[in-house]
Specification:
Blueprint: H1 7-13, H2 25-35, H3 45-70, H4 79-88, H5 95-114, H6 125-130, H7 135-150, H8 167-181, H9 188-200, H10 208-221, H11 226-235, H12 239-250, H13 254-261, H14 268-275, H15 280-294, H16 299-308, H17 311-320, H18 325-333
Length: 339
């Protein structure tokens, strides 16, 4: 596995902290929140650095596109400065954006932890699917390879494109960046129109998640054994494909499947495997492959959870995840927890 701390990446992504910064009451509220955070819930330095780099890249790209659309020659401000201004104003504290950045960071971290695994020499799953005999599978796999390639920076680290965001988040972020770029009220109209134009030009079909789903559609159409593909994806740390497979098999939705997959050690992975109807050997393989990468996990304990879940437990959890999201969130806010 990759280490928790990445000094090189962290130094690149984090702002330097002034040792002489103020320590008065203006900072106390932030210190209190930070001090009492559960250590298990805090970002690792690697996650923080990757998410910071993603945000800076996205904001910088968006600023340049808006400037061009507005007829400006160039953006004089650094992307990190723009991102910091937006963060300090609370304008990028949007659940959808932060959730997506965290998921991409976790996907990268998990894939990196498998990069040094030894085993039989064979072509990875996705390149094998690119050369698949089924033309639909091959084309969809190639489209996913291209989509993933666009979402890597010069150092091979993850990046986002505006189309990956929910349309509401994309529009809000575009307007926020445009507002930061505004030199004065005289230019507000031009910049707001440019922001709306850039946001409207995104195509939801170009989302990375849509490319993943298109590959699974092609695989389903080819009527092949998805158990074998889940096992191969699991053994290679292809966690995005695993989550999509299990979402379809369980019917709980992509985000819910991802949350369960990352909730190893608290029974989430075992419950997801049961809701997806995985046979025990495949569930055990999934837990052994991904459990240690997605949380503090005892393989034996998680397998025991898989074995001890009753059909009623699984049916109750499955019924909960069929409820409207707002209703589920309200029940959780009122103190009722589900798997």
């Amino acid at each position: 596995m990759m280490p928790e701390e990445w000094p090189i990446t962290a130094n690149a992504g984090d702002r330097l902290v002034d040792p002489a910064r103020a320590r008065g009451p203006s900072r106390l509220a932030t210190v209190r929140r930070d001090f009492f955070l559960d250590p298990g819930d805090r970002l690792t330095e690697q996650e923080r650095a990757l998410m910071t780099a993603m945000l800076h890249d996205l904001v910088g790209t968006l600023a340049n596109e808006i400037a061009v659309a507005a007829g400006f020659r160039k953006v004089d401000r650094d992307s990190g400065e723009i991102a910091a201004t937006l963060a300090n104003s609370g304008l990028v504290d949007r659940a959808g954006l932060v959730s997506l950045m965290l998921r991409r960071a976790d996907e990268y971290r998990i894939a990196a932890s498998f990069s040094g695994h030894s085993g039989p020499r064979r072509l990875p799953l996705l390149p094998r699917l690119v050369s698949d005999q089924d033309a639909g599978v091959a084309a969809a796999a190639m489209a996913l390879v291209v989509a993933r390639g666009r979402r890597r920076d010069a150092f091979g680290q993850p990046r986002l494109e505006l189309c990956d965001l929910d349309p509401a988040d994309a529009l809000a972020l575009a307007h926020s960046v445009a507002a930061v770029l505004s030199p004065g009220r005289r230019e507000d109209g031009r910049l707001s129109m440019a922001a709306a134009s850039v946001a409207a030009s995104t195509v939801p079909a170009d989302q990375l998640d849509q490319a993943t789903e298109a590959l699974l559609d092609a695989i389903d159409a080819s009527a092949r054994n998805s158990d074998e593909l889940i096992e191969q994806a699991s053994s290679e740390g292809e966690v995005a494909l695993v989550a999509s497979f299990l979402s379809r098999r369980s019917g709980v939705g992509p985000q819910a499947a991802w949350d369960h997959l990352l909730n190893s050690g608290e029974g989430g992975l075992a419950l997801l495997a049961r809701m997806a109807g995985l046979p025990r050997p495949l569930a055990a393989r999934l837990i052994a492959d991904l459990g240690g990468s997605t949380g503090p996990l005892s393989v034996e304990d998680e397998i025991a959870r898989f074995d001890n879940l009753t059909d009623d437990d699984v049916a109750s959890a499955h019924a909960h995840w069929q409820l409207p999201r707002d209703y589920r969130n309200a029940r959780i806010a009122l103190g009722e927890r589900h798997g």
